[in-house]
Write a structure and sequence with these properties.
The protein starts with a helix and ends in an 11-residue tail after the last strand. The protein is an alpha/beta fold. Helix 1 (about 5-15) runs antiparallel to helix 7, helix 2 runs parallel beside helix 6 and helix 7 packs across helix 8 (about 190-200). The longest helix has 18 residues, at about 150-165. It has a 7-stranded parallel sheet with strand order 3-2-1-6-4-7-5, sandwiched between helices. A two-stranded antiparallel sheet has the order 8-9. Mean pLDDT is about 90; it is low at about 220-225. It folds into 2 domains: about 1-15 and about 175-225, no CATH class; about 15-165, SPOUT methyltransferase, trefoil knot domain (Alpha/beta knot, 3-Layer(aba) Sandwich). The chain contains 8 helices and 9 strands.
Amino acid sequence: MSAARLARMRGVLDRRQPDLTVVMAGVHKEHNVSAVLRTCDAVGVAEAHAMGAEERLAVKQTAAAGVGRRVPIRQQASVRDGCAALRGRGFQLLGAHLAPSARDFRDMDYCRPTAILLGNEKEGLEPDAQAACDAFIEIPMVGLAASLNVSVAAAVILYEAQRQRQRAGLYDTRRLGDETYRRTLFEWLQPRLASYCQTRGLPYPELDEEGHVVRLAGRPHAPDRR
């Protein structure tokens, strides 16, 4: 484990935004899902959500640049229940949808806990996702095209959220809780050992200041990987 790699991982986690997320409700194409996750990682989104899909969404690694592990997708079959859970955590739900009441996406306050709902680019958000939204947002278009590709739209909106949050100082101090921070850092630095612990119901061992395992809980030594 190099000191530079450990410092980089900590630096990324220090800027993660636990109260900014994306909900993919009707986004199924592998390359779109992957591109959305890549932007989520770039602006510090801690986790993304997929709702309304029966099968687990696939991530195209060449498009996601390996961020599928760093930005986990929390999947839920029910859009209504998933959105209700986010609202219960204090999130405002903004739907990227061409509705008559839609506002310019730049007019919204993204410093509040915010979930951005994305639908497919042909029809936008489905009725159950629309019903869950607190407000609709749109990206002004002056060309012949009515909308952007969903992953491009996600990037445009998320970078406005990042701009506002940077001005408000929300990237200046660590915002993840201690337990989430420790768990996530361990999973990034020790993915194989994290998987080992998960499958056996073991707590993660402690890491020293250089990112090395101190001791595997319940075992005197690290597991044999042969």
